[in-house]
Amino acid sequence: MSGDLLSLDGVSSGYGQSRILWDVDFALPRGKATALIGRNGVGKTTLLSTIMGLRPALTGRILFDGKDITRLSTHQRARAGIAIVPQGRHVFPFLTVEENLLSGLAARRDGKKAIPDFIFDLFPKLAQIRHRKGGLLSGGEQQQLAIGRALAGDPRLLLLDEPTEGIQPNVVAQIEAALRHVRTEMGMTILVVEQYLDFAWRLADLYSAMQGGRIVRQGDTSSETADAVAHLVHI
Amino acid sequence: MDSAALLLPQLFNGLSVASLYLLAAVGLALSFGLMRVINMAHGEMLMLGGYLAWLTLMVVPGGFGIIAALPVAFLGTAAIGALVHMGLIRRLADRPLDTLLATWGLSLILQQAARDLFGPIGVEVRAPDWLSGSFTLAGVVIPSARLLIIVMTILVLGGIAALLDRTRVGLDIRAVNQDRMMASATGINVRAVELIVFCVGSGVAGVAGVLLALLGPVTPNAGQVYIVPAFLVVVMGGLGSLTGTSVAALILGLFTALAQIFVDVSIAQMLMLVLVILFLQVRPQGVVAVRSRALDV
To answer: Which ipTM was obtained for this model?
Structure first.
C-alpha cells in the first residue's frame, strides 16, 4: 500500500453542463496536513465536495486507503472515515450542541454511543453551551461545533473548507491548536481549503495550489514561503 | 333542542373529528417536511387500515379484536408504505410533479383493487359491546368509540414525539430534516431515514383507518373522505411542522363540528374550505412557519 491515504486519479466534476474540475490528479499522504489554496472559483470547494461524495465524479476514480470509493454514497464515505467541515459550517440549527455532536457519531465504525471527551477538551466552550440550539450560536462557536461534530465520527481524513472565515482571532488560535492536536497526537490526515495563508502555512506540511479547475503546483510549506507561492499562482 | 344544548356534545365530536384529521395528516406532514413529497395515495392507507381491521376481526372475533387490529393495521400499512417508497417515491426523487401523478395513479389502483377484492358496497366493522355504547360525563353523552379515537390519537402523537425527541432514529430524522446534505456527510443514511418516516406515516394512517371503521362502513373510497381535510390540515399547519399540524387539525375539526350545529354537513365542509382560504390570506406561512424545514415537536 502506498503512503497516500487518499488519491484522485483523473477526476473531473462539475455542475450540469459546466465543468469545474479537469482531470485532477491529487494525493494526500497519511498523517500530513495539506493546504489547498487558490483564488475564488478555481474549484477548491468542488474538489472537497467530490471527495466527500456530495458531487459525483464525472471521470476518474478516487481511492481511499487503497479502496475505490468513487461510486460510494456520501454516508458510506463518512462511515469509511472521511469527515467534512463545510463552508458556512452547516450546523443543524434546531439541534442542541450536544445533539449536533451526537449526530456525528453516525459515522463511527466502533459503534460508540457517547461523545468523546477529547472534543470538550479541545473546545471547552462546547461543554458550557451543550444545551443551546446550533442556530443560536456565534460564528466561532458554530465553527468549533462543526469541527467537533466531524471529529465525533472518528475520521481518518478531515476536510475543512475555510475554517477561519469570519472567525475572531482568539477562536482561530483555538481551532489551529485543535487541528494541530488531532494531526500530531491522533495521526489524522487533514485537507484544509484556506484563503488565510498565514494560518494555512502554520498548520500545513504541504500545499496544493489550484487554478482553473486543475492542481497547478504542489510543494512543501517549509521550503517555500506563502508569499512566494501566492505570487506564483496569482492569489 | 336549542343550539346551546348541542354545543358540548358537538365540541366533543369536533375533538374526535380533529383527531382523525390529525392521524390522517401526520404522515403527510412528516413525509412532506422531510422529502417534499406529496403522496396522493395516503388516503388509501386509511382505507387499507379499515379493511385490515375487518380482516383481523374475522380472525380475532372477540371483544378485543379491534385492539388487535391496531398493530396489525399499523404494521400492514407500514409495510405497504415501504413498498410504495422503494418502488415509487425513491425512484422519482426530486421530481415532485411525477411523484404527484404516480401516487395519484396508485391511489386509483388501490381503490379499484379494494373494489374487486372486497366488493363495491363496503364492509362493516362492528364495534365490540364495550365500544358501541356511550356514557354520560357532566351531562354530556360521550360515545365510547369517539373517546377511543381521541385517546389513541394522544397516544400516537406522544409516541411520535418520543420517537423524534428521545431516540437515535429521531435525532437522525431531525438532522435530515434540517440539513439533508450535512446529515449524509455525518454518516446518516438519508434514504433509510426517509423510508422509516414514510413507513411510520403510512402506519399511523392505517391506525386512523381502524378508528374510522368504528364510525362507519369501510368502502373502497373511504380514504377520499378524509384525505382532502388532511391535506388542508397540512397546508394550514405550515407544511411539515408537527405542532402546526396538530393546531390546524384542532381548528378544522372543531370548526366543522360546530358549524354542523347550524348548517348541514356539506355546507360545513364548504365553510371549512372558506376558512382555510381566509386563514392563508392572513397567514400564508401556516400556523407554524417552518424555517429550513424544521420538524419541531
So the answer is: 0.93
